[in-house]
Specification:
The chain is mainly α and 143 residues long.
Length: 143
């Protein structure tokens, strides 16, 4: 608990050290604290924001040196970071589930089981083509 007290002191918020100790908050759960948790502890808004920012700056590095017999291990640097996809994985997954849910909502699965592939393609594309023609004729879309 002394480590948390020292960390709070470096932030200029040593007045919260006792509250953190009473609630047994240490570095192992520090990154799990939310704004609501800090509010429940009685931390004022400005200090909550500063604490959350400081916790985020801790990143994935150890929050404080822990007393242990083993020296700290430093990770080997990565040769090159892989290119990140333009859409976060979580976002793509949510969109996929929404698309499947919408298809089921309008009965696409049942309709596709009743029609052969060409008929199903026509059922999907003809309304889109008609809509595009209507929009272009009303000068809302470029040709």
């Amino acid at each position: 608990m002394q480590q948390i007290a020292d960390w709070l002191k470096t932030l200029g918020m040593s007045e919260y050290a006792e509250r953190f100790a009473e609630n047994r908050i240490d570095f192992s759960i520090l990154r799990d604290l939310t704004d609501q948790d800090l509010k429940d502890l009685g931390v004022v808004l400005g200090d909550r924001r500063k604490m959350l920012r400081a916790v985020a700056e801790l990143g994935s590095a150890p929050a404080a040196p822990l007393a242990s017999a083993q020296p700290p291990v430093t990770p080997a640097p990565l040769a090159a970071a892989p290119a990140r996809p333009s859409v976060p994985v979580e976002s793509a997954a949510e969109r996929r589930h929404l698309t499947v849910m919408f298809c089921d909502l309008v009965g696409s699965t049942a309709i596709s089981a009743q029609l052969d592939a060409e008929e199903w393609r026509d059922q999907r594309t003809i309304p889109s083509v008609r809509c595009g023609r209507r929009c272009r004729s009303s000068a809302r879309l470029p040709n």
